[in-house]
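Supplementary Text 2. Reproducibility record for the structural model of the 239-residue chain.

All settings were left at their defaults, and a single model was retained for analysis rather than an ensemble. We include the record here because the model underlies the residue-level annotations in Supplementary Table 4.
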Amino acid sequence: MQAVEQRLIVALDFPTWPEAEGTVHKLTGVKYFKVGLELYLASRGEAIERLKNLGKEVFLDLKFHDIPNTVAQSCRQAVAHGAAIFNVHAAGGREMLEQAAKATAEQALRQGIRRPLLIAVTVLTSMNQEDLHEIGLTDLRTAVSRFARLALEAGLDGVVASPQEITLIREVCGPDFKIICPGVRPAWAAKGDQKRVLTPKDAVTLGADYLVVGRPITQAKDPAEAALLVMQEIEEALT
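Retained model, structure tokens:
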């Protein structure tokens, strides 16, 4: 079973590296941090190495979605840069996903390192059923189910999905398929722009492997205390 501190991923959604670094230093008990597009670009790609130099693990959240060859080469770069977890969009299709999985495994073998987790994004947690109708996806649960099954068949390790779809994904993909859940909000935190949310305790109870939490921790008056409260919820769910 994963330790409690290995299940929480704190999202470093900051416009500059010094702001992100200041928060990391406050969160000494947190092992995993998410680097998204904003911080990756703001740091000119250096956020990964800087976090690793601080003894942290990185979830590189760039959501690759392009032609298969471009995504495969991008996956090689993500491995080379030392990401422990990174993701692609399941909507890129089977060939893209298969090439991503192959490139990730080959690059890790070439470097003689442990293969990172390759995760597919299903449906963004900022979207609800009405949003999906506008882009031609008629049913949210069907879309998530199809994306998750496609990722499993293509050889990926898991998916990013709303905690509200955990049970569905477990039914489709089994107990060993990894589920990373953004859209996690403690009862004491605001939802922000997330629409499909659950509390940390409920998400882990349902079977989430990793929880991504950003603003409820990073914008708290005491980020360390907020992170501790989230980890306490995780521990309660596990015990």
